[in-house]
Amino acid sequence: MKKYLKYTFYIVLLIFVAIQFMPTNYNLSDVVSENDISKKFDVPSEVQQLFETSCYDCHSNNTQYPWYNKIQPVSYLMEDHITEGKEELNFNEIGSYSKRRLKSKLKSIISQLDDDEMPMFSYTIIHRDAVLSEEEKEQIKDWATSELDKL
Questions:
Q1: Phi-psi region of 42 (alpha: psi -120 to 50; beta: other; left: phi over 0)
Q2: What does the pLDDT read at residue 16?
Q3: Residue 120 maps to a domain
Q4: How do residues 10-34 score in pLDDT, each as one tens digit?
Q5: Using N-to-C axis directions, what is the helix angle for 134-150 and 99-114, rounded to 10°?
Q6: How many domains does the chain have?
Q7: 4 inside domain
Q8: Given this model, what pLDDT does residue 1 score?
Q9: Peptide bond before 73: cis, by omega within 30 degrees of 0?
Q10: Which of 61, 75, 100, 117 could form a disulfide with 92 if both were Cys (CB 3.0 to 4.6 A apart)?
Q11: C-alpha count within 13 angstroms, C-beta hemisphere, residue 2
C-alpha cells in the first residue's frame, strides 16, 4: 500500500512540475479603447478609482497580476475567471454596447452591489483594498442610476 502511495505522490509531483512549463495568455493591454467607460461616460474620479481598484482586474483589458499567477494551475483558473468576467462586462468596451445591453449592465451593477455579489468574496480575500464600503457602493449605484436616467 505504501508503495502505491509513493508512486502516486511522484506522479502527481511530476504532473505539477510539467504544467509549470505550459504557457497561459495574459490580459494585458496598453491601449485605452475609444469605447472605454472613461471616454464614453461622465464618471466621477472617485467612482472611476473604485472601478479600477475593485473591478478592473476581471472586467477590463488590463489585469494587475499577483505573484502567485506564475504558479499553475492557478494561472489557468485566473485566466478562465478573467475571460468570464470580461464576457459579462468589460469597462474598456462598454461604450460599444447597445443601448439595451448597456441598460442591462447598469442595472446589473446596481443589483450585484445590493446583493453583495461584486466584487466576489474569493477576490476580496486576497485583495483587501477591493472591498467596497457601503458609502462606496452607494457612490457607484448613484452614478449607475444617473446614467440609466440619461438613456
A1: beta
A2: 74
A3: yes
A4: 777 777 777 777 777 777 677 778 8
A5: 160
A6: 1
A7: no
A8: 66
A9: yes
A10: 61
A11: 0
C-alpha cell at 37: 467607460
Query: Nearest 5°: phi and psi at 45?
Result: -60, -35
By the 8 A CB rule, do 108 and 89 touch?
A: yes
Q: What is the pLDDT of residue 92?
A: 94
Number of helices (H) and strands (E) in the chain: give both, helices first. Answer: 8, 0
Q: How far apart are CA 145 and CA 117, in angstroms?
A: 18
The whole-number pLDDT of residue 15 equals 74
Instruction: Give mean pLDDT, residues 97-126.
Output: 93
CA distance 115 to 4: 48
In a domain? residue 88 = yes
Residue 40 structural domain:
26-150
- ∠ CA 102-130-69, rounded to 5°: 100
| Residue 33 lies inside a defined structural domain of this protein | yes
Name the region of 10 (left: φ>0; alpha: ψ -120 to 50; beta: rest): alpha
Q: Across the chain, what does the average pLDDT equal?
A: 87
